[in-house]
Amino acid sequence: MIVMGVETSCDETSVSLVEDGKRVLANEVLSQIDIHKEYGGVVPEIASREHVKGIVFVFDQAMKKANINYKDIDLIAVTAGPGLIGSLLIGINAAKVISLNYGIPIIGIQHIAGHIYANNIEHDMEFPLLALVVSGGHTELVLMESHYDFQKLGETQDDAVGEAYDKVARILGLPYPGGPQVDKLAQQGKDTFSFPRPMLDSGDFNFSFSGLKSKVINTYHNLNQRKATISTPDFCRSFQEAVTDVLVKKTNDAMNLHNVKQVIVAGGVAANQGLREKMRQTITDVPVYFPSIKYCTDNAAMIAVAGYFKYKKEQKADDYLLNGFSRLELK
Amino acid sequence: MQKSWKRLAIDTATKYVYLSLVLNDKEVDSVYEEGLNNHSVTIIPHLVRMLERQQWKLTDINEVIVGVGPGSYTGVRIAVTIAKMIGYLNNIKINRISSIALIASSVSSGTVLSCIDARRGNAFLGLFENTKTKLTRKTQDSLINIESYLTDLEVKPIVTYEGRPNIEKIIHSDLLEVVSDPTALIPNYMQITEAERNKCLR
Ligand SMILES: [Zn+2]
Fold it and tell me: Which domain holds residue B27?
């Protein structure tokens, strides 16, 4: 079964073709990072304009790469939310046109489900499994007992991890997107600032990063005012240690409580080297899987994989009233 | 041109969603409906029902006419996205048309100032001359304060912000522009984004 994935929820225009939820025939990503860099973050109106400009090109590239005909496609899976509404609707309408033109069923996919399913490309999912979803918009622990069955164990009460990373990067004057820069610098530093580990012993699986973020920012400003020299690598390392300590401990606790067969880490922050190392060192009883970097960041292959398993389970497509939502729960 | 030439016209640049099917220069079906900010959801269902009524398939369409704005609402991007995709998938010709010209075509005769509201007293507007069968452009589309524009104008035009387009008149006008590369088609935003403006001011 060949599934076409379409993802336009933020600043990547992506189209993929994936066979049987596993074999990636094509995964084209037109990234707008260089454009939004100049603004220090994604500008929604510019993102929408770029999606319209690039959309046909990306479809065409993906089809050429996969070397198949539109008639060979069995299902179209498109991100329905959460995301930037003006951007989502471009992918959704383009996908609807293909569906109508060739009579291919269409299905809407929740973006985070896509991030989780990115893992299946390289490692078969085995249940029950625990997924830690970490990105610019999300921080949550999800338990899955079977395909397309998501139980949220906990989530951030305020900022997402990626968001905190970006803010810290900004005060340090690092270029956008800041997360990977902080991670890189942290590799060369030491944990000298001993920042707080928020909610480490809260006894639940929720997170909070806004307090830590403020603490980090205040510390920086105070040192700056006193004209003290700040070691950026040490500063990054200290922040990263605080964040990853919490993420790893909570994941480990949830794993022990639910007796899972595997742990998967999903979302843009899953690319973080510090998190990868600590996760692998701490969780040794069951395998811990991370998608390759290209499947951690937003891409349509993950949407196609999620679409395959959703359709297999529900045996039903959406109709053409399929809508986009800036907020959409993982279900 | 073939014996039965099928055209699809589509515009979502205003608060109305507009679709039309044209067979050999005659409109056979159309939708002109005020949307509640949900064009982007209802447009394809409208298209499906309209095609069903005429027993056409999307792949039967020989040519697409698309309203490209001016404007920068989500709506203007939806029609353009759909038109691009249809043009690309079926390798057919796309014609772009000013959404302001589409509005102007709704008036049966006279000098028409056709407008799309751009807030704060401004509008995207253009002046047109209308007869029963012909629509001609008098000025290029522009973004301007509507009051001062009207004061400066010597003629007193019929001012209109809406109206069901007369697609047959549009087809016979010289206002359609052939899109040479559907892949590259974008709306006529007419303005850079606020973020880009602010960057220039920085
Ligand atoms: Zn994402």
Answer: 6-194
Cβ–Cβ gap A70/B89 under 8 Å: yes
In a domain, B121, yes or no: yes
- The larger pLDDT score, comparing residue B155 to residue A282, is at A282
**Is residue B95 situated within a structural domain?**
yes
User: Is A60–B44 a contact, with Cβ atoms under 8 angstroms apart?
Assistant: no
B20: three-class secondary structure by DSSP: strand
Supply the CATH number for residue B33's domain. Answer: 3.30.420.40
Q: pLDDT for B77-93, tens place per residue?
A: 999 999 999 999 999 99
Interface test with B, best of A38, A73, A100, A325 (most B CBs within 10 A): A100
Q: Give residue ranges of B with CB < 8 Å to any A CB.
A: 38, 40-45, 47-48, 58-59, 72, 74, 77-78, 80-82, 84-86, 88-90, 182-184, 186-187, 189, 193-196, 199
What pTM, to 2 d.p., does this model score? 0.96
At which residue do the structure tokens 């589509």 appear?
B10
User: How many domains, in total, are found in chain B?
Assistant: 1
Over 80: is that where the pLDDT of B17 sits?
yes
Q: Predicted ipTM?
A: 0.96
Q: Considering CB atoms only, which of A46, A89, A320 is closest to B74?
A: A89
At B111, list the tokens: 């000098």
Q: What is the pLDDT of residue A261?
A: 97
Cα distance between residue B160 and residue B113, in whole Å: 6
| Inside any domain, residue B199 | no
Cβ contact (<8 Å) for B85 and A92?
Answer: no
* pLDDT value of residue B202: 64
Q: Which fold, A126-290?
A: Nucleotidyltransferase; domain 5 (3.30.420)
Kindly indicate whether the domain formed by A2-116+296-314 is annotated with CATH number 3.30.420.40: yes
Distance of alpha carbon A212 from alpha carbon A210, whole angstroms: 5
Strands B122-130 and B110-117 come out as antiparallel
- The encoded tokens of residue B137 equal 């452009």
Q: Enumerate the domain spans of chain A.
A: 2-116+296-314, 126-290
- Looking at the complex, report in whole angstroms how far the Cα of residue A234 sits from the nearest Cα belonging to chain B: 33
Please tell me the number of Cα atoms within 13 Å of B47 on its side-chain side: 30
Shortest distance, CA B77 to any CA of chain A (angstroms): 7
Shortest Cα distance from A102 to chain B (angstroms)?
Answer: 8
- Structural domain includes residue B201: no
Residue in B147, B165, B154 with CA at minimum distance from that of residue B10 = B165
Residues of B whose CB is below 8 A from A323 = 38, 41
* List of residues 6+ apart from A283 with CB closer than 8 A: A248, A251, A252, A255, A263
**At which residue do the structure tokens 């400066």 appear?**
B152
- Give which of A18, A108, A120 is closest to A331, Cα–Cα: A108
